[in-house]
Amino acid sequence: MSDIPGHLLTHPSSFSPSGNNRVSATVGNRCVLTCPSKSNMTMVTWKISPKVGGPCTLGYRADQNKTDRTNCSDSMNWKFRPDRDPALEIRQVGIDHEGNYTCEVVATEGNFHMTYHLTVLVPPRLTMYCDDHGNPVCKAVAGKPAAQILWVLESNSTPKEEGHDNGTVTVLSTFTAYSTNVTNTTCIVSHPAGNQSMTIACHP
């Protein structure tokens, strides 16, 4: 059993512990990922590994005051001037932006890096209708992650899920009332991108 404390094995002066952050953004919105800004930066690199498509990089070199990009889409760019603020901006978040984003800063006081795992949220479209038996049906279409459907009045319904190729999920729930004199039924869709509700009147 070694009694060497773990912090002796690294060189604190040349390396800072990396942050690993989980962030989420709603599709269509703007997303800004910050990066540790140091006074004497010589180089900044964003390394992006999306779940879909190949990796891309954005780089900045202070000695040449030059930026370069490799395989990055136009929707991703520096938020401001990288010599002042090395934050990355995604102008319109899409499902294909989901993945890992690592910012590496080389400065006179050492190397710093920060990793983000970006999850993209897609709010589902909410629809309601009456089925052939007069039961209210609530449908949360193409949400990511799958939405949860709740009924204001108690129901013994079991939601059905259907996955789509782009990672979204449609959830369908049929309201089955314990008493037949229910007229208005309200369905609540709970989702990280926001909750929605709708009411319908069905006649059995």
Automatic annotation (TrEMBL):
For biological process, the GO terms are:
regulation of neuroinflammatory response
Localization (cell): Membrane
Q: Which PROSITE patterns match?
A: IG_LIKE
Q: Return the SMART domains for the record.
A: IG
* Cellular component terms (Gene Ontology): external side of plasma membrane
- The domain of life for this entry's organism is Eukaryota
Positions of the UniProt region annotated as Disordered: 1-21
Question: The Ig-like domain covers which part of the protein?
Answer: 12-119
Q: Looking at the keywords, is Transmembrane helix present?
A: yes
Question: Pfam families annotated for this entry?
Answer: C2-set_2, V-set
Membrane topology type? Single-pass membrane protein
Q: Which UniProt keywords apply?
A: Disulfide bond, Glycoprotein, Membrane, Receptor, Transmembrane, Transmembrane helix
- Composition bias, Polar residues: 11-21
Q: Does the keyword Cytoplasm apply?
A: no
The terms under GO molecular function for this entry are: signaling receptor activity
- Could you say which protein family the record assigns here? Belongs to the CD200R family.
**Can you say what this protein is called?**
Ig-like domain-containing protein
Question: Source species, please?
Answer: Accipiter nisus
